[in-house]
Design goal:
Length: 440
C-alpha cells in the first residue's frame, strides 16, 4: 500500500512555516468563531420562534373571542385594531388556496388550531405565491365567516450593523493570528540566520538567550555548539602546528644525510621527495591557519601601490606578470592575507598558463574587484566549485610538480572569507581562467 502524499506535494500549500502556522491558526479561529456564531444564531432562532408562536396562540384566541362577542355591525371597526402586520383578520370566506402546507405553515396552523375554541371548525389553505402565506377559515357563532390571513415575516431579522461587526471580527482574527505567528516564528528565524552566518572565527554577536524557555534553551545550545566548533578548529591548528614543528627536525636531518651521500639517481629522488614532504607540511599548516586570518589587524592600503609592488616582485624574478588595468584608491583590509591570496592565484596562473594579467576594477556598491587572468586550459564548469576544496587536484597524477598539493585555492578562499571578501572562478572566452577576488 502506497504512503499518503506529503503536504508539500500540494501546490496551494505554502512553503514557509510561518505561512502554514498562520493558515492553520486562522482557519481554526474562524471555524471556532463560525461554530459559536451558528450556535448562538440557532439558539436565538429557536427562542424567537417559540415566543412568536406562543404570542400568536394567545393573540388569536383573544381576537376570535372578541370578534365572536361583538355585534356583526361593529366587527369591521375592530379589524384594524387587531391587525398585527404578519397576520390580520378578514370578514369573509377569503381566497381560494390549496390544502398542502409548508413545514413553517404547518407549525403556525397547529398553534392556531390549539388557540381556537373547538366549537369553531377551522380549515387551512396555502395561498399560491412564495409558499409562506396561508389562510385559516372558520365560522363564528352567528354563522358569519372569518378568515385569518397569515403572511409570516422572518422570525429573527438580521440587524444592519451585524455584517460590519463580522468584518471587524475577521480583521481582528487576521491581526491576532499574524502577530501570534510572527512572535512564535521570530526566534526560529533568528536561529536560522545565525546558523547560516555561523563563523566561529568571526567576532559576531552571540545569539540572544532570552525569551521563552524553549527558545532560550535552543539559543544556549547553539552558542555552546559554536564555542565547541571554535575550540575544535583551534585545536586543529595547534595539532598541525605541533606536527609541523616535530617533523621539521627529522626532515632536516634526512636532507643533510641525503646530501652527504654519494651522488646517484636515488640520492636526487630522495632529496626531491624530502622537499615535497616539507612543502606539503608547510601548505597543510598554512591552510589550517588561513581559517584564522582575523588574527592580523586591518590597515588602510593604497590598492594601486599594493598591486604594483606585488607585480614588480614577480617581474624581478623574470615571471610574466603584468597589470592590465588599475584604479586609484585606498581600502581597509589585512594586507598580508590579501598578498597571500593573490600570490596563490598568480602562482596557479603561471603554472597552468605561463603568464598572469592582473586587473583592478570598481565593483558594485564600491567594492574592489581584483582579477587574476590567464590563458591556460581553464577548469571544467562542473568542477569550478570542487577545486576550492582542500587537496582537490584537477590532474589526478601523483606528481606534485605538475599537480601541486591541492591547497593553493583552498587557502585563497579561506583567507578571502577571513578578510570579509569572496573568491570566484570563471572560465574566460577564448580559453583561460579568471580568478576574481571581491573586497567590500
Amino acid at each position: 500500500m502506497s504512503a499518503p502524499p506529503a503536504l508539500d506535494s500540494f501546490r496551494p500549500w505554502p512553503r514557509t512555516l510561518g505561512s502554514r502556522l498562520f493558515l492553520i491558526l486562522l482557519a481554526g479561529l474562524m471555524l471556532a468563531q463560525g461554530l459559536s456564531f451558528s450556535a448562538q444564531f440557532l439558539e436565538r432562532y429557536m427562542t424567537a420562534r417559540a415566543v412568536m408562536l406562543n404570542t400568536l396562540e394567545n393573540d388569536v384566541a383573544t381576537s376570535i373571542a372578541i370578534l365572536d362577542r361583538l355585534p356583526a355591525t361593529e366587527r369591521s371597526d375592530w379589524l384594524q385594531r387587531l391587525d398585527r402586520g404578519t397576520y390580520r383578520y378578514e370578514l369573509g370566506p377569503g381566497l381560494a388556496g390549496v390544502p398542502s402546507l409548508t413545514e413553517q405553515g404547518a407549525g403556525i396552523a397547529a398553534k392556531i388550531r390549539e388557540a381556537v375554541d373547538p366549537r369553531f371548525p377551522i380549515t387551512f389553505k396555502s395561498i399560491p405565491g412564495d409558499g409562506k402565506r396561508l389562510q385559516a377559515h372558520l365560522t363564528l357563532s352567528d354563522g358569519k365567516p372569518l378568515t385569518i390571513d397569515v403572511n409570516p415575516a422572518p422570525i429573527m431579522p438580521l440587524a444592519e450593523w451585524l455584517p460590519y461587526v463580522l468584518v471587524l471580527q475577521l480583521i481582528l482574527l487576521l491581526l491576532c493570528s499574524w502577530f501570534a505567528v510572527r512572535l512564535a516564528i521570530r526566534p526560529l528565524v533568528n536561529l536560522a540566520y545565525a546558523a547560516d552566518a555561523l563563523d566561529p572565527n568571526a567576532k559576531t554577536p552571540r545569539l540572544s538567550e532570552t525569551g521563552p524557555r524553549e527558545v532560550a534553551y535552543a539559543a544556549k545550545a547553539f552558542n555552546a555548539m559554536r564555542d565547541r566548533i571554535a575550540q575544535y578548529l583551534e585545536e586543529r591548528v595547534q595539532i598541525l602546528a605541533a606536527i609541523s614543528h616535530d617533523l621539521q627536525t627529522p626532515i632536516t636531518r634526512m636532507k643533510l644525510r641525503a646530501e652527504m651521500a654519494d651522488d646517484s639517481v636515488e640520492k636526487e629522488k630522495l632529496i626531491q621527495d624530502l622537499a615535497e614532504i616539507e612543502r606539503l607540511v608547510h601548505e597543510g599548516v598554512a591552510y589550517a591557519r588561513s581559517a584564522h586570518g582575523d588574527t592580523e589587524k586591518s590597515s588602510r592600503i593604497d590598492i594601486r601601490a599594493f598591486i604594483e609592488s606585488l607585480v614588480y616582485d614577480y617581474q624581478d624574478t623574470g615571471k610574466a606578470v603584468a597589470v592590465t588595468e588599475k584604479i586609484n584608491g585606498a581600502i581597509v583590509t589585512r594586507p598580508h592575507a590579501l598578498r597571500r591570496i593573490l600570490t596563490n592565484l598568480i602562482d596557479n596562473a603561471l603554472k597552468f598558463g605561463g603568464s598572469a594579467d592582473i586587473s583592478v576594477e570598481k565593483g558594485e556598491e564600491g567594492a574592489v574587484v581584483i582579477k587574476v587572468l590567464d590563458r591556460g586550459p581553464g577548469i571544467p564548469e562542473d568542477q569550478l566549485e570542487a577545486v576550492m576544496q582542500p587537496f582537490f587536484r584537477l590532474e589526478q597524477s601523483r606528481n606534485r610538480r605538475t599537480g601541486g598539493t591541492g591547497l593553493g585555492l583552498a587557502i585563497a578562499q579561506q583567507l578571502a572569507l577571513a578578510i570579509g571578501g569572496s573568491l570566484a572562478l570563471r572560465n574566460r572566452e577564448g580559453g583561460g581562467l579568471s580568478a576574481e577576488v571581491i573586497i567590500p
